[in-house]
Write a structure and sequence with these properties.
The chain is mostly beta strands. Helices cover 10% and strands 38% of the residues. The chain has one domain (2-43). The strands form three sheets. It has a two-stranded antiparallel ribbon with strand order 1-2. A two-stranded antiparallel sheet has the order 3-4.
Length: 48
C-alpha cells in the first residue's frame, strides 16, 4: 500500500509514475485518477 499524493489516503490500487518535470515518483489512488482530482508535485508541477 502507498499513500495517494492527492487525497493522502493509503491505497492498494494506485498508479505510480514519474513527474514530467523532476522525475519524482507520484502515487495516485485509482479513485482520484478516475474523478480527475488535481495533484501538485513537490517541484510545483500540476496535473489533472
Amino acid at each position: 500500500m502507498k499513500r495517494c499524493l492527492t487525497c493522502g489516503r493509503m491505497a492498494k490500487d494506485y498508479a505510480e509514475f514519474p513527474c514530467p518535470d523532476c522525475s519524482e515518483k507520484i502515487v495516485r489512488c485509482n479513485h482520484c485518477r478516475e474523478i480527475r482530482n488535481p495533484y501538485k508535485c513537490k517541484c510545483g508541477f500540476e496535473g489533472p
